[in-house]
Write a structure and sequence with these properties.
Number of domains: 1
Strand content: under 5%
Low-confidence stretches: none
Oligomer: single chain
Radius of gyration: 13 Å
Number of helices: 4
Shape: elongated
Order of helices and strands: HHHH
Length: 65
C-alpha cells in the first residue's frame, strides 16, 4: 500500500514539474516524500496506530535518509 502511495506522489510530482516547466529533482521529491512520512507519522500517533505505520514504512526509511 505504501509503494502505491509513493508511486502516486511521484506521478503527481512529475506532473507538477511539467506544469511549472521545471526539471524534476530527486532531492526535491525525497523532501516531499519525507514530509509525507512525517505527516502520516503524526496521524498514526494521534490515532494510536503507530505500530501499523512502522510496519508499512520500515522498508522505505532508507530512501528518506
Amino acid at each position: 500500500m505504501v509503494i502505491n502511495h509513493i508511486l502516486l506522489l511521484a506521478k503527481l510530482f512529475i506532473h507538477r514539474c511539467k506544469l511549472d516547466k521545471k526539471d524534476p529533482s530527486l532531492d526535491i521529491f525525497k523532501a516531499k516524500l519525507k514530509a509525507t512520512y512525517k505527516l502520516q507519522l503524526y496521524i498514526a500517533r494521534e490515532n494510536d496506530v503507530l505500530s501499523k505505520h512502522s510496519v508499512n514504512w520500515d522498508s522505505f526509511i532508507s530512501i528518506l535518509s
